[in-house]
Amino acid sequence: MSGKATGKTLLEAIDAIEPPKRPTDKPLRLPLQDMYKIGGIGSTLVGRIETGVLKPGMVVTFAPANVTTEVKSDKMHHEQLSEGVPGDNVGLKVKNVSVKQISHGKVAGDSKNDPPAGGAKFTAQVIVLNHPGQVGAGFAPVLDCHTAHIACKFSEILEKIDRSTGKSVENNHKFIKCVEAAIVKKIQSKPMCDEAFTDYPRC
């Protein structure tokens, strides 16, 4: 059986894919994955840049700890970088910072350009995927945000929404069940850096 095929080959189609634009124009956001104390070198922080640009010599602030320090060097895979951009997994050498001040879950940002801030409560869109009963005010699931892992209590269900369209279905609803969605006020068990995805998209 013979036939004629038209269009691009698989390799041609892959080569034609345009890489996504990295959000380098946004303020710096770098969630910390870990921190190491290395003898003779000092404190080294490890994380992945989500927005903005990181350069050696930059003064950064860590939220929600509100600790400020200077980045002495910026490396990726043991190679010195002149700058780090969104998507880069980097190691930062910083000074005058202890493990007790900065830990897993904190977020770094440029202290001179919209530094990150910690919050104690926020409003979120929630979908119950798998729960045996109903959930309402007082329910306290664990939230993973960036690299933070923190329990957050439902303080109030503001409205029940259609999970496919996001449109309001019912106001002042007391409970939601499995496969239902709602807009909920949450209170964190401890401060966390939580910001709108529309303002700080992940790379």
Automatic annotation (TrEMBL):
InterPro entries: EFTu-like_2 (IPR004161), GTP-eEF1A_C (IPR054696), Transl_B-barrel_sf (IPR009000). Residues 121-202 form the GTP-eEF1A C-terminal domain. Belongs to the TRAFAC class translation factor GTPase superfamily. Classic translation factor GTPase family. EF-Tu/EF-1A subfamily. Keywords: Cytoplasm, Elongation factor, GTP-binding, Nucleotide-binding, Protein biosynthesis. Its main location: cytoplasm. This is Elongation factor 1a. Residues 42-107 form the Translation elongation factor EFTu-like domain. GO terms for molecular function: GTP binding; translation elongation factor activity. SUPFAM superfamilies: Translation proteins (SSF50447). The keyword Cytoplasm applies. The gene is EF1a. It is found in: Cytoplasm. One of its GO terms (cellular component) is cytoplasm.
